[in-house]
Amino acid sequence: MRVLIVAAPLAGHLTALLPLAAAVRAAGHVVAIATGDTALGVDSGGIETHDVTPGLRFGRVGAAVSLRHPRAAWAEVAGRGGEEFARHLFGALNRRMADPLAELVRRTRPDLVVYEPWAAVGALAAAAAGVPSVLLENGLFDGGWAARTAFRAFDGELPAPAAVVTVRPPSLGASPDHLPMRPATGWSGSPDLPAGLDVPGPRPRLLVSRSTVPGPGAGDPTRAVLAAADGLDADVVLVRPAPRIAAGPLPANVTTTGWIPLDAALPAATAIVHHGGAGTTLGALAAGRPQLLLPGIGDRRGNAEAVAAAGAGLAEPVRGITAEVLTRLLTDPALLVAAERVAAEIAAMPVPEDLVGPLLAFT
């Protein structure tokens, strides 16, 4: 069998799909990826990757959309853009992907197309070639809603997928009609952790991570955490901080590190503060660690509110990050109990290898 994986041209959108892609290839099938821009730099584990957005730079597209729709852009920066800004932005991206992706499908003739919600054009290319498609959710939002939003750039109705795979645990909105799959929680880079981060320390350990996507809106909690660090009885580890911050000076209880696989570091940590992206959010949930999320741009507000509603973490703007709030994050037993409850749900979800047979049965 030949399977084509389609992701929007953003690194985080592709990494969420890689565990299933690897499982399909490990089962003896041929797998290829269609994406673009920053996702082309992701380590796919040797899976053939095709650029279906040649010359595209996500930042330029986002800036152009913001200039054309300024009120929607400001609402998006505040984390309240809703459908409008996403429709314009991902509509533009999907239009750029449409012709190259259709040509790739015609040329490679896959037996199945798997696409993520913000790459809904994958369903269109599959339908045009008479190939079944599967929608793979990659976050805590409704993937069907996102796919329909992105597809509004095209005339007609979005072709229905043969199945929807959800990575949402039951307590965070998973539909019983969808096929569950344990979410991707790692980063596709080096598997190595710096010495000491793989085991708990003598004091609570707080990880701090920021967004990999440049742009407007609060995506970096680092400075706020640093301002509160002196008041914490904890060791603070800044993951991939901005160069000026890494150069110091830093409080005595603060250290820095470069890229690390968060799924390997989280079990030995006490909690994490981060920008609210889907990958980090799901990783902290899977590890059963309380988290503080910034309710910002894109899906970050929804992620923050969903985690807070489940009791597994805190949703705080940058200005709300204080020593008192961080102390609660590190010590509140109710947060830990709720996070561990969600982790148990995720651990009970089928792994990607379990989905290969059911998905290929649609071909």
From TrEMBL:
It comes from the Bacteria. InterPro entries: EryCIII-like_C, EryCIII-like_N, Glycosyltransferase_28. Residues 23-153 form the Erythromycin biosynthesis protein CIII-like N-terminal domain. Residues 1-21 form the signal peptide. Belongs to the glycosyltransferase 28 family. Keywords: Glycosyltransferase, Signal, Transferase. It comes from Pseudonocardia abyssalis. This is Glycosyltransferase. It holds the Pfam family EryCIII-like_C. Residues 224-360 form the Erythromycin biosynthesis protein CIII-like C-terminal domain.
